[in-house]
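Blackboard transcription, Thursday session:
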Amino acid sequence: MIAFILKRFAQGLLVLIGVSFATFIVAHLSGDPVELMARENATLQDKQDLREFLGLDRPLGAQYLSFVTGALQGDLGYSFVQRAPVTDLIAERLPATLLLAAAGFLLALAIAIPLGILSALKHNTGWDIAITSVAMIGQAAPGFWIGLMLVVLFAVEWQLLPVSGSGTPAHLVLPALTLALQSSARLTRLVRASVLEVLSADYIRTARSKGLRERTVLFIHAFRGAMIPVVTMAGLELAELVSGAFITETIFAWPGVGRLAVNAVAQRDFPVIQGVVLLAAVFFVVINFLVDLLYVVIDPRVRLR
Amino acid sequence: MTQVSVSTFLRRNVIGLIGLTILSVAAALALFAPWIAPHPPSQVNLTARLLPPFWVEGGQISYPLGTDNVGRDVLSRIIYGAQVSLSVGGGAVVIGAFVGSLIGILAGYFGGWVDAVLSFVINVQLSFPFTLLAIFLLATFGGGFLSVVIVVALATWVNYARVVRGQVMSVTHQDYVEAARSVGVPVAQILWRYILPNILSPIIVVASFSMAQAILTEAALSFLGVGVSGTRPSWGMMLNDGRTYLQNAWWMTAMPGIATALTVLAGNLCGDWLQDRTDPRLRR
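(Written on the board underneath:)
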């Protein structure tokens, strides 16, 4: 079990090194930041001085090393567009993103788990068909479009909620619902499939033939087994919500990391983009690692391996 | 194969039939757009700005789904928009399937360090916030049809690589492959003659789902303003235009979104259906 955890930890670390390297390379392919930063009338000498000042005249390997050692110490570089350290810019906006992601995630689970279980228990009935159809449509519609339609209904038509912005709990509802509907569409179908598979497993038949009550079979025996794939998927969804809420944050003018990143792309603010990509990848790897740890707790087969 | 009645056939394949029908309609709209669309897609008519769909008060039957802020016909733009969505989707599927399958085959067949390196690349790719990477690349290197196709393919090649790798691993140690290897059949021929036919159906299943994913990705990129630029209307671009007029012209946003959702749904339905039909574990 310890070997399993160590192995996963090492894998995560390797992936992070890979991501940091790829980010670094892409940021360097994207053009000379000095050309973007220098004043209109800067001479070649001015540019050379600036390059030396920024350390951009050093070999790539040295630049990568200082980028990584800086990142490890919480220094993600300096945004010349916003004239502020990238770490500060991100730290300022991270709470808003985490709040939105957490609200969206909990809402998604609250929608997906009951509906998925209901759908599986009422397999091939009207309920099942209705739930599965709605989930399929939710999966097919662009997430940001669902958000815009929610705005049309709740903010424009019925005037119940604000169109965009932040500050009050009412501002959180529409963006959180937008994120939740997207991921609950995926999760509902997974919960359904997972419960269906478990219900046909031998150990459920054994539990039933022992004469256990149906409620005990469902909630004690089936639920735990069915949740194993759901935990993996839910972990991926959470990572997706933290790192993938760019468009939702932009639509609702939510002051989070995603909106920071989209604006940074528009302004060619490479240090910010690099920082956000790295942060998102760290989230992804950490959440995946936690999911693996959770596996050890809920799935005895992993513990015995 | 046993004889099945027409009704059994329909019941088993209804999902696939719905999906294929929607995709065929979308393809027909894209191909025959100039003959089907009631108006040229970029024809501005300032006297007919922001007209609602015909069933809403004030709407006109000559603009069935309404008009946008400069009086362009929404229906015609959706019909032409199918060209961008389907060609980006199709192009990304071809590139993604080729690159992803190739990597999956190499990783699965050779195993060892080849597999370790390629799996590492797959894991790194999966850990990237893809949308951000995509807009970053497109904003840096410029848009255009080919760039968008390549970036969208970059989003989907992993799907193929993972599935193909697993399939190849299970096929590689079958007796007939071992036999071919032991009599000295060249590797390329083993891959082509003995491995590829066995992994074609999972590739087709993944391609259906990836087509849907590609269309969604293209819409998101166009929505963010880094899609296939130029004068050709695309659904994502229409959604972006509509955003500004959300307060008084919901149809500008609703209609292209429905078109996108239907097409994506069709791709997913085909994928589900093919998976049911080709995965022996699911066959009932």
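Lecturer's comment: The mean pLDDT of chain B is 87.
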